[in-house]
């Protein structure tokens, strides 16, 4: 997947140059502690004792467009199950509530490891399934998982017609 980076200028997150770890952010009626990371796209990860789809859909839209994130951000609500398992709920930048995401899994596992909450081998549990994450040196990420058919369809031939 590449390497996760926590540097504000790389993510990007507004403010002075720093690792964005355990910072406060206020949204609606609530203040959260978050960490931010990038693995080619920005992520705002919020560790909590309890997470749900309702939480993601309530706060995700406002976090996505918060002024801290000049290019918007993906949002993950993270629950640590144990040293090798985490659960996330995802609000994806530009797409909304999402059942599963490789970059969200990678960033969440890396943040949980950076915070000392999990080991280097982590299974990420999401509503859409599980992904295995191995965190290497320099926060390089190796992701493994299954491929599951979720839909079937046909495309109309007109989509491929050449128009002159």
Give an overview of the whole structure.
- By secondary structure, the protein is of the alpha+beta class.
- It has one domain (2-160): Roll (Diaminopimelate Epimerase, Chain A, domain 1).
- It has 2 helices and 10 strands.
- It has helices at 53-64, 102-114, and strands at 2-3, 23-27, 30-38, 42-47, 74-82, 85-92, 96-98, 121-126, 129-135, 140-144.
- Strands 1, 2, 3, 4, 5, 6, 7, 8, 9 and 10 form a 10-stranded mixed beta sheet that branches.
- The longest helix is centred in the middle third of the chain and has 13 residues, at 102-114.
- The model has no long low-confidence stretch (mean pLDDT 96).
In short, what is this structure?
The chain is built from 2 helices and 10 strands.
Q: What's the overall geometry?
A: globular
Structural class label:
alpha+beta
Provide the helix percentage: 10-25%
Distance between the ends: 40 Å
Strands, total number: 10
What characterizes the major β-sheet? Answer: 10 strands, mixed
Q: Sketch the topology as an H/E string, one letter per element.
A: EEEEHEEEHEEE
Estimated share of beta-strand residues: 35-45%
Query: So, CATH architecture?
Result: Roll
Rg over CA atoms: 17 Å
CATH uppermost class: Alpha Beta
Which terms would index this structure?
164 residues, alpha+beta, Diaminopimelate Epimerase, Chain A, domain 1, ten-stranded mixed beta sheet, 2 helices, 10 strands, 15% helix, globular
Secondary-structure blueprint:
Layout: E1 2-3, E2 23-27, E3 30-38, E4 42-47, H1 53-64, E5 74-82, E6 85-92, E7 96-98, H2 102-114, E8 121-126, E9 129-135, E10 140-144
């Amino acid at each position: 997947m590449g390497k996760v980076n926590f540097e504000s200028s790389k993510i990007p997150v507004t403010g002075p140059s720093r690792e964005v770890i355990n910072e406060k952010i206020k949204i609606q009626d609530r203040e959260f502690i978050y960490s931010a990371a990038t693995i080619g796209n920005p992520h705002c990860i919020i560790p909590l004792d309890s997470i749900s789809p309702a939480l993601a859909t309530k706060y995700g839209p406002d976090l996505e467009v918060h002024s801290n994130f000049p290019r918007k951000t993906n949002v993950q609500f993270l629950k640590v199950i144990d040293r090798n398992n985490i659960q996330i709920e995802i609000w994806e930048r530009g797409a909304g509530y999402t059942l599963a995401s490789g970059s969200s899994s990678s960033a969440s596992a890396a943040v949980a490891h950076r915070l000392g909450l999990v080991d280097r081998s982590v299974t990420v549990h999401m509503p859409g399934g599980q992904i295995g994450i191995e965190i290497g040196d320099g926060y390089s990420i190796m992701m493994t998982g299954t491929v599951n058919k979720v839909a079937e369809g046909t495309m109309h031939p007109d989509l491929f017609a050449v128009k002159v």
